[in-house]
Amino acid sequence: MKRILVISGILVLSMALAASAMAADGMARVRAIHASPDAPAVDIWVNGSVAFSNAPFKGITDYAELAPDSYQIQVSPTGATEPIVIDATLDLAADTDYSIVAVGKLENIEPLVLIDNNSAPAAGKAHVRFVHASPDAPAVDIAVANGGPVLFSNVPFKGVGDYLPVDAGTYDLEARIAGTDTVALSVPGVMLSEGTVYTIFAMGR
Fold it and tell me: How far apart are CA 59 and CA 19, in angstroms?
């Protein structure tokens, strides 16, 4: 349980300045997140061509812009055409942002498709979402430390906590075993900037 959350590095990589983070008119945008703890670095293929190369565990790509349509998404070890560990069809809608998260251990890896809401927070606010991508961890609560409120409650593996508006500032967070006061990990000094949209991923084993 002490490695349930990987936040300090991921938080920076998974934020977007809302003012410049929307899909272009009529287009969709897609990014990939490697959250499979025992999988090697991977290439992500779109309709038979490599779209994202050498994505490591905990890696989060930039958004790629695509026309709305159906696409074949495949994942293979970096530099190899096989084995294909994920092979899925993704339907993309216009004016929508997506995150494709590779979740689970390598033996049963699968895509978790998220719709990202990168609309601008209100003045003085940030938006925060939580994704549980740790395959052998129990459901968790994400709370403000030292008796603060629970931000995301009872989120299981592959569960997603909805975007939450919070005051911009620096927070000491903690992950608790759901429904208890048992702290699995303390994460002090998480800075949430005004006008920014964040996703916090729980990764690892």
Answer: 23
